[in-house]
Amino acid sequence: MKLQRLLSATLMMAMATGTVACGNGATAAETKTSESEETVVAEDAAAETEASEETAQESQETETEEGTSETEGIKSYADLTLGEDFTDLTAEISFFSNRTDLDSEDYGGTNWKQYLDAFNQLYPNISVNIITDTNYAEDAKTHLQSGDYETVLLIPSIDKADLSSYFESYGSLDEMSTQINYADHWEYQGEVYGVPSTATAQGIVYNKRVFEEAGVTELPKTPEEFIGALQKIKDYNNDIIPLYTNYAAGWTMGSWDDYTGISATGDADFTNRTLLHEKDPFRDYGDQTHPYAVYKILYDAVAKGLTEDDYSTTDWEGCKGMINRGEIGCMVLGSWAYPQMEAAGENAEDIGYMPFPVTVDGKQYALAGPDYCYGINVNASDDEKQAALIFVKWMTELSGFVYNEDGLPIKAGSTETKLSFDNVTFLQESPAATGEEDLLNELNAESELNYRAGGDRRIQLIIEHASMGDMEFDDIMNEWNEKWTAAQEACGVATQ
Description:
Blueprint: H1 2-15, H2 37-59, E1 91-97, H3 112-122, E2 126-132, H4 136-146, E3 152-154, H5 163-166, E4 171-172, H6 173-176, E5 187-188, E6 191-192, E7 195-196, E8 199-201, E9 203-207, H7 208-213, H8 223-236, E10 241-243, H9 262-265, H10 270-277, H11 290-303, H12 316-325, E11 328-331, H13 338-342, E12 351-355, E13 364-370, E14 373-376, H14 382-397, H15 401-404, E15 424-427, H16 439-447, H17 456-468, H18 473-490
Parallel strand pairs: 1-2, 1-3, 10-11, 13-15
Antiparallel strand pairs: 3-14, 4-6, 5-6, 7-14, 8-13, 9-11, 9-12
């Protein structure tokens, strides 16, 4: 039904679309005569120059049959009207994505082939070659560094100062804020370089039937209650894995960092401002909040035997069907994972999504923010850039991708979403202070902690130490604090 609605909407748009208007040809310049042959020659030359200038001027307002402008440049994201502009544009572009699951015809939702078929109903001459990669976070950076990369990429973790070296600006922050939500996520010096593919909330995907049958009648709101719920599942049925870590996938480990900001503090400033200047930010705050409480959930779950027997054999693709069948109780993943678990079997109704179990002053919070963002290759040709802009805007406004993937709205003003949390406050993270846009990256590089920047190995070590029992949790946090403090001193950061 999703695809039928998608195709129906696209076809209606295509039927209502007119052709792109063309301007008139250049006018001829008047030629004046003169008694002197030299004067005639001079006048003729001047007339030719005038005619050339008029022709050039009009050509800036005249679109070619291919839909692009000869000299006016590229029509911006904000000025682009889908279904009306550039419907005859012929171009071939490439798109590098992390969504390997959408390659399969067996995917339970709308797959890449179906999206492209719908896109080509409106833009039949724009060919989009989609390349996907399970190791996207690292390989995307390798592509960028090679200098030979795709027309459209999902922007990996890079310094904001480098954005203009790799990606085309979509427009000013003021302008793009009228077009999309989260426009400031990949903004630098007033220019926006990324359009979110979707937006997510941070919580936990879980099997509702497993929790209910194990006697968990109320969703846990604190780390202590969450560990208690996992224990109830284990006691109910030892064959069910209460919490699946997805250790072996690697990239899934970084998800734990995402809960240490707004979800664990209720503070929109924490990640990009407070943390940078905080002394010992990984310390125990004594109230089951802040990063300490988040990471301790993982450590305690492993230490108490509430995760898989052998963390090294976890299977990312296999876990989707396992939770759908009720063989897994829950997994700590962003809401982007929710529809994938629903689509992995016949028990979509059993899949639920709960807030992360931390309560701050009696309230629960959830980070609402963009997932990967589309960036356009700054080195692409004008036709490729224009086609890329069309594709990105179509994915954002007409494809239904955000809704299909249970995301939060990207198009400014849209409220269409299937995702909702009861009694949870959604917050967006504040951007870094002016002049500190890359300070988090600098501290990460100096400390080698890679907090909120692909620190997968750091989180894996929590699991390893908890499993082997060779390092206490507080000792791990103390080590992180020491590294963070040393990095702050090396970078000349004032602490408080």
